[in-house]
Amino acid sequence: MKLQYSLILIFTGLMALILLGINLVMYSMSSGYRQYNFFLSLENSSTIVASAVLQQEKAEDYYAVKNSILQHLADEEEYILRINKDRSNIEFPASLPLNEAFYWEAIRNGIAKHYENGVHYVGLYKEHAAGEDGILVVSSARDVDGDAYRKRLKTTLALAFLAAVFVMTLTTVFFSKRMFGPMVKIIKKVNSINAFNLNDRLEKEHSLEEIGELQDTLNGMLQRIETAFKAQQDYVSNISHSLRTPLTIIAGEAEIALSQLEKEHKATYSLQMIMQETEKLKHIINVLLELARSENNTQANAWRVLRLDEVLESVKEIIYKMDSRYKLKIDFSNFPENDSMLYVSCNEHLLSLAICNIILNGFKYSDNQDVRLKLHAADNEVKLQVIDSGIGIAPSEQDKIFNPYYRGSNTFDYEGFGVGLPLAMKILEMHKGTIRVSSKVGKGTKMEVVLPAAYAQQHV
Ligand code: ADP
Prior knowledge:
The chain crosses the membrane at residues 6-27, 157-175. It is a single chain. The chain is an alpha+beta fold. It has 3 domains: 3-150; 209-291, Orthogonal Bundle (Helix Hairpins); 300-458, Histidine kinase-like ATPase, C-terminal domain (Heat Shock Protein 90, 2-Layer Sandwich). 54% of the residues lie in helices and 17% in strands. The chain is built from 10 helices and 11 strands. It has helices spanning 3-54, 59-69, 100-109, 144-192, 209-260, 267-292, 308-322, 348-364, 420-430, 455-458; strands at 74-83, 111-116, 119-127, 134-142, 303-307, 328-331, 343-347, 371-378, 381-388, 434-440, 444-452. It has a 5-stranded mixed sheet with strand order 6-8-9-11-10. A 4-stranded antiparallel sheet has the order 1-4-3-2. A two-stranded antiparallel ribbon has the order 5-7. Adenosine-5'-diphosphate binds at residues 357, 361-362, 365, 388, 390-393, 401, 407-408, 411, 416-422, 445.
């Protein structure tokens, strides 16, 4: 469970328990005090009745006092039992729900109290004179006001408890959001940073000092990583530049040599291989160079509006130069009737590089089987599907393959660095396009490149 939710649960649970305890103590104290007072009234009433019975001549006065001073108790009843001094032959009233222990307690201690089914009982024992016969007055009554008071108290305490728990939960949620909100933002942001946006930084939050310190620390770390990464990129970029010229010369010289030889000459095959391998090397170097370049380096004047099928023709040429066995099949079944729907605004060099990477993967991971291309234009989008019948990509890995340096778990037998697709994705994002993948392990892969059509703006 997330720390935020467990904190909310623990805090509100604990506070609810404490509140419940306080409420229970308040209820039992208040109710106990009320009951104590009621027993006192009943005891007073019993005392007057006992005095009236013991002093018959003043009985009227006692009853007058009882009626005028003592409050009238609901359902009040009195039972008078005569107890002889040897306390034998006592007949306790069977109509009362009291057991004998109650009567004996009253006789022994002078008083006994009992509460049952909403009725209070007080037993009061008085003797004519010490060691003489005595009387036991048992008074019973209902505390109607007390019961109503207890009911009201219960409802009030329960409502107050619910309201307090509700307010406490809201407050805890509010404060936990304030505390953990910035943390969630930081996690999201840090997760979104990769080799292509290392210059991104966390925005400074001023809510909590510790969170601010954490952000400063992470930003400092990103800065150090970016500096180290930049130094590496510069190194790769310089080497790639230095390699490009000799490679172009090798390819050019091989081509000249090839043109001067008879077709059947023994060296023809070797020269063809030199040219193919040089083309592959040039492609790898181009990928490395573009990886090392930042987005801002892309020259604005290199952008043009071109037909995607024409871009594909140059891609086909590059690929064919790399290996004449590569068979690219273009499927025209979905080709739009109106050619102008195929226009896209692009940097031809970069877009070709991205599409090349995707197609070369199709050949690589299908052991050079045919790769099919399908071109389709609709809804202001131009779509290119690259379909192979290769090893496929496991569902759990399909969203990871666009992360830099990630390689599928089934690619041990294939050479690669895990940079071709991330670079293709980056280039397509620069074109405001995207790439989707659908694949079945052992059956093949379909990569779909989607680009916004330039037709709407350029050719209306
Ligand atoms: P590389 O091919 O050099 O490993 P990429 O960035 O081009 O790096 O591709 C990343 C990963 O995506 C590959 O390692 C592979 O697992 C998977 N992948 C890409 N294209 C295909 C494909 N056509 N068929 C199967 N797996 C593919």
